[in-house]
From TrEMBL:
Lineage: Bacteria, Bacillati, Actinomycetota, Actinomycetes, Micrococcales
Catalytic function, reaction form: glutaryl-CoA + oxidized [electron-transfer flavoprotein] + 2 H(+) = (2E)-butenoyl-CoA + reduced [electron-transfer flavoprotein] + CO2
Species of the source: Pseudoclavibacter albus
Cofactor(s) needed for function: FAD
Name of the molecule in the record: glutaryl-CoA dehydrogenase (ETF)
EC class name: oxidoreductase
């Protein structure tokens, strides 16, 4: 079924397998998520009971090949992220933290033994992971991290705090990045380790149907086998962040598309001055502008996905997608909320919920300012971060 916002037949650019995957994930979101999201959002609950079904659909670490993972393409991964975020940003964030961050860290930088031990369990949803990079005093500049790992004989001892860590309170393992005498290193930390604790950050005005936490590491002792051997610098966590940022490029357009569809339906049914609101020129202009930006954002996401599958995607290109699509998506959701009038503040309708969520999405995995400076450096050759 062609989306209401598809004015240029974008579906014609997708393969039969890609369309089938989109329909499968969309049906899952419609059946298991949409009927309950208003309640989950209001109560600030993430529905852990749907994790096994997401695993059964092959969504956990779906872009990873081998070790029980689905091995889907970058475009297929993006399509799934778009459909999940059309339900709620918290739903896409779960898949992103589990797959693009925690599982990717092990897949990219772990030993064969670590991959075989953890990835099949994580792909099956029997083990949940989180990714500890951001800290209370180190957000946009991870190089300022204060968490340290010190060698003591055959062990590592970790001390520090991590903040805004998705899934921390339900995770079985945490990928923790820490300073060492040899530089930044990554560790697989079982959350049952003595000295590890996680508390939920709440109350929140955004991402309420999602879990964000603060992690404390108080003399957590690990064996050398828990270190990621391939992670030898700050470049390692950035490679994982780029996976997550790529998913956001698609996901933001899912939230925008859902808000647009709600506004289009509402204005077609709601009558004022004896006419549907959608019959007025100002309303039609808003709908057209929203649809155009969704189309452009989807084309951008698809282009980046094809480049990624071809091994030609450059890091700055992800910043183009993340900056543009988050910026446009939040505007679309705000405009959609306004078109619903007073009813737009009710949880019965999704646009304001999406807009609130996108305030977080726009911030994490690199703020607008960070991605602007990445692109500024690409255009001028001059780094302006310091």
């Amino acid at each position: 079924m062609t989306d209401l916002s598809d004015l240029i037949n974008i579906d014609s650019q997708l393969t039969a397998d890609e369309l089938e995957l989109r329909q499968t994930v969309r049906e899952f979101v419609d059946r298991r998520f949409r009927p309950n999201i208003a309640e989950w959002y209001e109560k600030a609950v993430f529905p852990t009971e749907i994790i096994p079904e997401m695993a059964e659909l092959g969504l956990l670490g779906m872009h990873i090949k081998g070790n029980g993972c689905a091995g889907r393409s970058a475009v297929e991964y993006g399509i799934a992220m778009q459909e999940l975020e059309a339900g709620d940003s918290g739903l896409r964030t779960f898949i992103s933290v589990q797959g693009s961050l925690a599982m990717s860290a092990i897949n990219k930088h772990g030993s064969d033994e670590q991959k075989a031990k953890y990835l099949p369990e994580m792909a099956a949803g029997r083990m949940i992971g989180c990714f500890g990079l951001t800290e209370p005093n180190a957000g946009s500049d991870p190089s300022g991290m204060e968490t340290v790992a010190t060698r003591e004989g055959d062990e590592w001892v970790l001390n520090g705090k991590k903040r805004w860590i998705g899934l921390g309170t339900i995770a079985d393992l945490a990928i923790i990045w820490a300073r060492t005498d040899e530089g930044v290193r990554g560790f697989i930390v079982p959350t049952k380790s003595q000295g590890f604790s996680a508390v939920a950050l709440e109350p929140k005005l955004s991402m309420r149907a999602s879990i964000q936490t603060e992690i404390t590491l108080d003399n957590v002792r690990l064996s050398e086998e828990q270190r990621l051997p391939g992670a030898t610098s700050l470049r390692a966590p950035f490679e994982c962040l780029n996976e997550a940022r790529y998913g956001i490029v698609w996901g933001a357009m899912g939230a925008a598309r859902d808000a647009f569809e709600v506004a289009a339906r509402y204005t077609g049914e709601r009558k004022q001055f004896d006419r549907p609101i959608s019959s007025f020129q100002l309303t039609q202009e808003k709908l057209v502008n929203m649809a155009l930006e969704i189309q452009k954002g989807q084309l951008l996401a698809l282009h980046l996905g094809r480049l990624k599958d071809a091994g030609k995607l450059e890091h700055h290109m992800i910043s183009v997608g993340k900056l543009n699509n988050c910026r446009e998506a939040i505007k679309i959701c705000r405009d959609a909320r306004a078109m619903l009038g007073g009813n737009g503040i009710l949880l019965e309708y999704s646009p304001l919920r999406h807009a609130n969520n996108l305030e977080s999405v726009r911030t994490y995995e690199g703020t607008d300012e960070v991605h602007t400076l990445i692109l500024g450096q690409k255009l001028t050759g001059i780094p302006a971060f310091r």
